[in-house]
Design a protein that fits this description.
single chain, mainly alpha, three-stranded parallel β-sheet, 4 helices, 63% helix, elongated
Length: 131
């Protein structure tokens, strides 16, 4: 690593206590998923969540990644960290809406493919009848 990161994201600060200590010593802000066995005082931006559930980790990690990309595009990460710490539920709702929309689009695309296949079969039958 050529330079220090702007922030550190940790899934289980209790398990990653060395990383937490090192980030605190260097002054790197910590964003972390916390459940009931973690100390929120060790973290700058706590995200209450089940840090043992894979679905929970996947959802929040992807939301964090989206916010990092958004922050990099806008030219600053630190302001977006504060916005994210308060907007976890809103982000989860948006993600669910997007997933539902894509399922609808996939269904519509599948229906369109079925229609095309049916039309092609009909054309082939018509060609056979003409011969």
């Amino acid at each position: 690593m050529e330079e220090l990161p702007d922030a550190l994201f940790i899934v289980d600060p209790k398990r990653e206590d060395n990383a937490v200590r090192e980030a605190k010593n260097i002054g790197i802000p910590i964003v972390a998923m916390l459940d009931t066995n973690c100390d929120p005082d060790d973290v700058d931006y706590p995200i209450p969540a089940n840090d043992d559930a894979i679905k929970s980790i996947a959802l929040i990690t992807s939301a964090i990644a989206d916010k990092i990309i958004e922050g990099l595009e806008e030219g600053g990460l630190k302001e977006n960290l504060e916005a994210f710490a308060g907007g976890e539920e809103e982000e989860a709702e948006k993600r669910e809406e997007v997933e539902e929309e894509s399922e609808v689009e996939e269904d519509e695309e599948e229906e369109g493919k079925e229609e095309i296949v049916a039309e092609e079969k009909k054309e082939k039958e018509e060609e056979k009848d003409e011969k």
